[in-house]
Write a structure and sequence with these properties.
Elements: E1 2-4, E2 8-10, E3 21-22, H1 25-44, E4 69-71, E5 78-79, E6 81-83, E7 89-91, H2 119-122, H3 124-129, E8 132-136, E9 139-140, E10 144-146, E11 153-154, H4 156-169, E12 175-179, H5 185-190, E13 196-197, H6 205-208, E14 211-213, E15 218-227, E16 242-246, H7 251-258, E17 263-267, H8 270-278, E18 284-288, H9 289-296, E19 302-305, E20 311-314, E21 317-319, H10 328-343, H11 346-354
Parallel strand pairs: 3-4, 8-12, 8-13, 16-17, 16-18
Antiparallel strand pairs: 1-7, 2-6, 4-5, 7-17, 9-10, 10-11, 13-21, 14-21, 15-18, 15-19, 15-20
Helix pairs in contact: 4-10
């Protein structure tokens, strides 16, 4: 069963330190007054504590609908109502639109080999426009996020986009970034809204049916993230638990394949997953280790656990070539940039800057190219 959640959900379980969340001193009293006033307002409007909200349900409210106590100073305990992220979907059955796993005999990694043509021949439309349009995330720490001090987009994927723009225009600033969710990145390419998607997107055969890819620029591995002391140390411990994933990713496929009972909260961004686990709406998050490292950097009470699961090779997504929009030149252009940053050490510098928290530099994945007639 899947339910799209548009209202709020009561969230249960202990606070971050293992007990009920407590607020001290004057702030505690002030918070108590606000909560009491809110409850009184709700009662006056006919909104009772047992009201069934769309997608949450009545007595059996599922993953994100238990109660969390907030204790005030000299006031009765009350239940805080925690909203789920906008557009969140709670599923206890396998969704019909779940990204499927690739067939064993499928090899999605080979791409078009770079040639010696200049950008004027490879990407004339982009050159004429004067900028490269890149779809990415704005809330994926380490890969693409807004620097809190400058407000500028920064991260590993942002640096890669600028390297591609530099090879086309001679200027890394000639790039326009457009924010995409995991669920709409393929559609953005198909509808010609962006030239490329650089959004920690795994190369799969299922996705290749809709778009094409560069050679891999990074190899990630699916892992599990949870709260320290939760007792969860491997994927089997997620049986019967609540797990957050980003909609449109392959992260949930392994869960449904391995576990019989699981509640999955699908959200728009990984930042939404961070909020969900901090509010005890889920027990764990699963996705690529590179993304999880960025999440743990924002909360010291979280940790990555268990062995590496599926390999997730990241590629630059590009629209499929058509008679109206031949993108083969763009694929070769991107692959030539990837060849350059491997050879001149730029990729190693990018790894040191953004991803060194993952451990020693594994090196850029070796490219494999499609065999073409000479």
């Amino acid at each position: 069963m899947s339910a799209r959640v548009g209202g709020a959900a009561r969230v249960g379980g202990p606070g971050r330190a293992g007990g009920a969340a407590r607020v001290g001193g004057a702030a505690r009293a002030a918070l108590g007054g606000v909560l009491v006033a809110a409850l009184a307002f709700g009662a006056a409007c006919g909104v009772g504590d047992d009201e069934v909200r769309p997608g949450v349900g009545g007595p059996d409210q599922g993953a994100a609908a238990e109660s969390a106590d907030i204790v005030g100073a000299g006031i009765p305990e009350v239940e805080a109502v925690m909203p789920l992220p906008a557009g969140a979907v709670v599923s206890t059955d396998i969704p019909d639109n779940l990204p499927r796993e690739d067939e064993e005999n499928c090899d999605p990694l080979p791409s078009l080999r770079p040639d010696d043509a200049p950008p004027e021949e490879r990407v004339p439309r982009i050159l004429q426009r004067g900028r490269l349009i890149v779809g990415l995330d704005q809330g994926s720490n380490l890969f693409s996020f807004r620097d809190p001090a400058s407000g500028q987009l920064t991260g590993f994927d942002v640096d890669l986009a600028r390297e591609i723009a530099a090879d086309i225009f001679g200027d890394p600033r000639q790039v326009e970034f457009r924010s995409l969710t995991s669920a709409n990145r393929l559609e953005a390419l198909e509808n010609d809204q962006v030239d490329v998607v650089i959004r920690s997107m795994s190369i799969t055969c299922a996705r290749r049916e809709r778009v094409t890819f560069s050679v891999p620029y990074y190899q990630a591995y699916q892992r599990v993230l949870t709260v320290r002391g939760s007792g969860i140390t491997e994927i089997e411990h997620l049986e019967g638990k609540r797990v957050c994933v980003a909609a449109g990713t392959t992260s949930a496929s392994r869960l449904w394949a391995e576990l019989e009972r699981i509640t999955v909260l699908s959200v728009n961004t990984w930042a939404d997953c961070l909020v969900a686990i901090q509010q005890n709406q889920v027990d764990a998050i699963t996705t690529d280790d590179a993304i999880l490292v960025g999440i743990t950097a924002q909360d010291p009470y979280l940790q990555i656990v268990g062995p590496q699961l599926d390999a997730e090779p990241y590629g630059v997504g590009i629209a499929k070539s058509t008679p109206e929009n031949n993108t083969d030149g763009l694929v070769r252009q991107v692959n030539s940039t990837l060849e350059r940053i491997r050879a001149d050490g730029t990729w190693n510098r990018m790894y040191s800057t953004w991803l060194s928290g993952l451990g020693p530099n594994p090196g850029m994945p070796e490219p494999r190219y499609i065999e073409e007639p000479r």
